[in-house]
Amino acid sequence: MPIHLNRRLSLAMVLALFLPAMSAHAAPDYAQPGPYEAGWRQVSVQRPGGGSFNALLFYPAEAPGQNAPLDSSGGPFPAVSFGHGFLQPPTRYTSILEHLASWGYLTIATESSQSLFPNHASYAQELSLCLTFLETEHASPGSWLEGAVDTGAFGISGHSMGGGASMLAAAQDPRIAALATLAPANTSPSAIAAAAGVAIPVRLIVGTNDSITPTASHGRPMYDNGLGPRQLVDIQGGWHCGFQDSSVFGCDSGPMSRADQLALSRALLTEFFELHLRGDQAAWAGVWGPGLAVDPRLNALSESLLQVEAGPALRARDDFPAELAVTITNNDTDPRDLTLRAESADFELTAEPAAFGPIAPGQPTPATYTLTISGTPGDTGQLLITATRPDGAGAWVEIDATLFCPADINTDGVVDADDFFEFLALFAAADPAADFNADGVIDADDFFAFLTAFAEGC
Questions:
Q1: C-alpha 388: how far from its chain's center?
Q2: Is the peptide bond before 189 cis (omega within 30 degrees of 0)?
Q3: Helix or strand holding residue 117 (H, E)
């Protein structure tokens, strides 16, 4: 079932205070420009049967502006094909296109299909052909893009009609790994129907005050009809033409400023592609984790096709491995592999990502996740446990944890004879838990290490 993230907003607000400390790679501000300058140039894209159309290509550059030299230092780069809205030139989306380029994306925006009666099926094909152009240039000796394109990391995006055409393209083009749209419009053929064939991660970004493609009749049916991991992120006070750098006659308006809406849009697009095209786990909390619900300007539905439960509360000894019982449910139609991770703002935590699977669909599957926490015995805190699919989508659960003294074998809060005799039983059985000095061997050294800790107490 979809998760109504706004219903746990109070929890997310609390998590927001410490999320940056929970990861070794805290998420940057994705609304701000990335590390590259943004260059651009007009390119000619060939059609399979002959002829061509023009597109604007924005890219990481050594200097800003038209025809600037490519900065290939961080390549090869992921690529995003972007579709403009009805009768809108791609230049009306320059701020978003330049922003993605500054983050190291080759962002190509077709100038085609700007007629009064566009063919949406052809438009979707043109969005895919833009990716084919990049693929070809990447493999062409002497091309300025030779070796510069990550052809295994293609995304697609678009606004309004371009968003609907993006859905059509994603349903047909297996090279596309992630789709993120702005106020997507239903098309002919139907983008709503096409959503049922899109198994990649999808983020549909909409606005509550959109009077041109109202969410109830466009974005929400796409979400409801979706096949794969999907999100509907609603900008409170956002409006249809607020996703563009400027408006034309006939555009709507809304209470959110254009500057704020564009900043939110840049962040939502960038973090989504950073996770799903670049595999940057720093973006995970803001995309599928508790960070998505932190901003009160956003209201979101999220369906990752994955559920994770953990517990009861973890009782762990300081700096000793502890086993956490986890239950995973795969709500997809096919078996899926997944990876468990753990983070904490309250403890020092050692927890290697653990792979499980394939997990059969529909059946809750138990698993054991081993982690080690360190701190001050007696401390209590929280752990954030995340489960992710290979495509990056996932689910999370927060559990309580309490830390105990190393010699408190039974974690009852007291170091006494019960702990002594329990250790003796473990030692006699050569149980891995008796490896007190963690050297991989159960021997006299473990016995004497335990006696020392026992004598020290807490």
A1: 10
A2: yes
A3: none
- What span, in angstroms and rounded, lies between the C-alpha atoms of 102 and 418? 61
Domain ranges of the chain: 3-303, 306-404, 417-456
- DSSP H stretches of helix in 173-257: 191-194, 219-224
- Structure confidence at residue 159 (pLDDT): 98
Q: Measured between alpha carbons, how far is 177 from 192 in angstroms, rounded to an integer?
A: 19
Do 78 and 105 touch, CB atoms closer than 8 A? yes
| CATH class of the region 3-303 | alpha beta
Q: What is the mean pLDDT of each run of 10 residues along the chain (458 residues)?
A: 29 33 64 97 95 97 97 96 96 98 98 92 98 98 98 98 98 98 98 98 98 97 97 98 93 96 98 97 94 92 96 92 94 95 93 93 93 94 96 96 94 92 94 89 92 90
DSSP 389: -
Task: Please name the helix (run of DSSP H) or strand (run of DSSP E) that holds residue 138, with its range, or none.
Answer: helix 120-138
Compute the distance between CA of residue 11 and CA of residue 290 in angstroms, rounded to an integer. Answer: 8
**Residue closest to 421 by CA, chosen among 454, 444, 457:** 454
**Whether 100 contacts 278, CB under 8 Å:** no
3 state DSSP class of 105: coil
Q: What is the pTM of this model?
A: 0.89
422: tokens are 């329990």
Q: Token pair for residue 235?
A: 């900008």
Phi, psi of 60 (to 5 degrees): -65, 130
Are 210 and 239 in contact by the 8 Å Cβ rule? The answer is yes
CATH 2.60.40.10 fits 306-404, yes or no: yes
- The CA distance from 7 to 295, in Å, is 13
395 Cβ contact partners less than 8 Å away, ≥ 6 residues apart? 288, 304, 306, 307, 308, 386, 387
Residue 91 DSSP SS3? helix
265/257 Cα distance (integer angstroms): 12
Q: How, if at all, do strands 3-4 and 202-207 pair?
A: unpaired
d(CA 54, CA 42): 7
